Amino acid sequence: MQIEYVASMMSALWVTVAILAGGYARTRNRSAWAWFLLVLVFGPIAAFLLVVWPPARDPSASA
What we know:
The protein is an all-alpha fold. Helix content is 71%, strand content 0%. It has helices spanning 3-27, 32-42, 44-52.
């Protein structure tokens, strides 16, 4: 395998995980764009934190 091929595949995988994390963040009442950028920069560490931390409270459901 050539290094360019491996690098392009890893980049595509990294961006795909960031997109999926953004979608998942929205289901947990968190900012999709913020988590997309966090996962894009910090990678698996940010994705792990997104999964482990409890969902945010819904701001529209005030009681």
